[in-house]
Amino acid sequence: MLEQHLAVLPIILPLIAAPIALILGRSLLSWGFATLISGLSCFVSWQLLVAALSEGVLSYAVGGWPAPWGIELRVDAANAFVLLAVSAISTLVLIYSKDSIEKEIEKSKHTLFYTAHLLCLAGLTGILITGDAFNLFVFLEISSLATYTLVSLGSDRRCLTAAFRYLVMGTIGATFILIGVGLLYMKTGTLNMLDLASRIHFYESSRTINTGLAFIMVGVSIKLALFPLHMWLPPAYTHAPSAVTAFLASTATKVAVYVMIRFIFTIFGADHVFNEMGMDLILMALAIVAIFKCSYMATVQSNVKTVLAYSSVAQIGYMILGVSLVSVTGLMAGLIHIFNHALMKGALFMAVGAVFYRVGSVDIKAFRGLGKQMPLTMAAFTIAGLSIIGVPLTVGFVSKWYLVTGALEQNNWMIAALVLVGSLLAVVYIGRILEAAYFQKLPEDTDPSTVKEVPWLMLAPMWALVIANIYFGIDTSITTEAASSAAEWLFQNNNVQEVSQ
Amino acid sequence: MAEFIDLVLLAMLALTALRVIFLKDLFAVVMLFGIYSFLSALIFVNLDAVDVAFTEASVGAGISTVLMLVTLALTGRTEKENKRSTVLPLLVVTVTGAALIYGTLDMPPFGDPNNPIHQHVAPRYIEESPKEVGLPNMVTSVLASYRGFDTLGETVVVFSAAIGVIALLGVRRREDLAAEESGFLTHHVLRVVAKMLIPLIILFALYVQFHGDFGPGGGFQAGVIAAAAFILYALVFGLPQAFSVVGAKFLQLMASFGVLLYASVGLYSMFKGGQFLDYSKLAADPVAGQHYGIIIIELGVGITVFAVMLSIFYAFGSQVERSNVK
Questions:
Q1: Does A249 map to a domain?
Q2: What value of ipTM does the predicted structure carry?
Q3: Residue range(s) defining the domain that contains residue A392
Q4: What CA–CA distance (Å, rounded) separates B314 from B317?
Q5: Mean pLDDT of A388-410
Q6: Cβ contacts (< 8 Å) between B100 and chain A: which residues?
Q7: At what angle do helices A110-129 and B148-169 cross, to 10 degrees?
Q8: Chain A partners of B257 at a C-beta cutoff of 8 Å?
Q9: In principle, which of A66, A162, A174, A256 could form an S-S bond with A235, CB 3.0–4.6 Å?
Q10: In a domain, B179, yes or no
Q11: A187:B108 CB<8 A
Q12: Is A367:A393 a contact under the CB 8 Å cutoff?
């Protein structure tokens, strides 16, 4: 019986579990429950990806009302792929958070943390699966509110300012998306994405539609922290609890990248957005500035979480760069990097959280001598760091490879060269931390016996991600197959010529 | 005539907004926000969107004004001097405004029955919903049934807001609050009038809750109105007294229960062989099933909204009490 409901399960499992986790009330109980639910969603997502790759599209009419009157959920290769990454990371982060939040969040707020995490997961999966533009906004609101809450749970009081800033920027972004969807609705009379796509063709030269496009693109760009709208991200990632940063850095902005891809390819049509409106040039320019400016910013920070946060903005630049190439390979590179970056940043932020767990600080100075004291954590950090740089045999290399291939396909040597130069900056910011960890001594005033490995419940998910970094770096067949069929699917289906009246 | 009324209302709206920008007294700003919401509600009435107007009046003018006032009790009523440059924000706002005006130039003509929004999905909602869903109020049919998944989502948004506020401000028990100096102990007239009003407000909330199928109303508005009754009680008789009527922990349970009630209707229709939230499967007769479904989910919405609004007020109110004690 459950098979026919596969598409709706990843949303309603965490959605229903969130209030239950609040009722359970005890830290350990709600942790176990949240992890279980998240694991179930992950399993369902896997099933969905398999089904989407073999059968194409799965459509689900919520409430039994056919689209466009009711709300349709649509699972295809593109969103099933991102969905799997999101739900897998969520599960690993939840396992990790049991010990991690002990030191960062006061006991009385643990249940609220798990509830907010589940709400955030429900929101993100809802954004991914829905085939309705307004429904997407509703789930965006759920995930955003939950995210602001999660950031504000940090142990440091500065997290409140960071969360507030994030709230203001995020609300502006969401409002822009809502205005954009409203303008589209005014002109087409529908909210269903496919229906929108077929009716929008009539009006593509219309100012109302193009204004809608502009509002949606700016709104989504705030949400995905595209340079120069990224200013909310570094403080939020720096001051949020480590488990939250690990989750958000590897999922929230990626889902926003997916939303941008979905709006461009499925609703407006790549031809209109790129060839007629010329948005590929704008995106490409911003992506390149993001890669260089933010990689540089990452090299001059002293807080390791801030380093990684700036690095995230730069990595988002790579994803958008892939999209802006307007080719199947470029889009595939973007999609594959969504998945791969989730693996790298998840592992990196988990390792940083482990350092905070033992040392109580994430300043670069706190990393001195940890190579000896916490060998497993620092080895994980090193491998994930190499992956960020793009060393062969890691997933980072796979992403860069397809990105460079995509650029070279168009004989765009400059882009290919810029991608490689950008990686050198990553060598600098990751190298600084590794240098402190391996070539400097533990400060004299620290007792070496207190700085030891973290509990295995923190190490296991961290290492699961590290192994995934290496596994998908060597055996690229699964990820490339999923990403290439997603990219091809998006390109083929982006021009719906049939107009249903 | 309708255009003239719209014009006057919109002009007043613009004036209110401008006044809000330049005023430094936040108490006055909050009052102007209330006026702004009432004006918007009037515009909605003029557009025949009475359900939206009702929501705007009860949420925008009612509960959010109260919540902002409680916040002012914590933060103080004058705006701090802003020393930052305002050039960039002004530029951003101007560009956004210009883009919006640019977008309106091609807009479908105002009020034209041939507009896409009246021609595409709307005809089915108008013509079929009385037969398919069976409710006279088609706004409720759209919100609760055709787009019931959105409404479930919105209920969860409200729930998430409560989680956020509780995470930031914490939950207090009755024992933590000083019993003496809260409420208006000496204002006898106020106390008597409040006592007379509260039952009527609750009765009205119940009417709005269960009459949503037939006229403007529904869970959102009813929840807010019911919360307003309890907030009035808490203001006049003091927070500790209100806590002993309904405690903060209990409200958390209620908020969760409302969401679960809504979702359980969806799960039950799945067990009955339909899609998630397919109310037609709830009874042998599909239209009767739709009606049951809508009544239950509206109740879920009402319970969650009531509990969340009151929780947020409690959270702020306890902070005010605590700062008063200090």
A1: yes
A2: 0.93
A3: 2-492
A4: 5
A5: 90
A6: 179, 211
A7: 150
A8: 19
A9: A162
A10: yes
A11: yes
A12: no
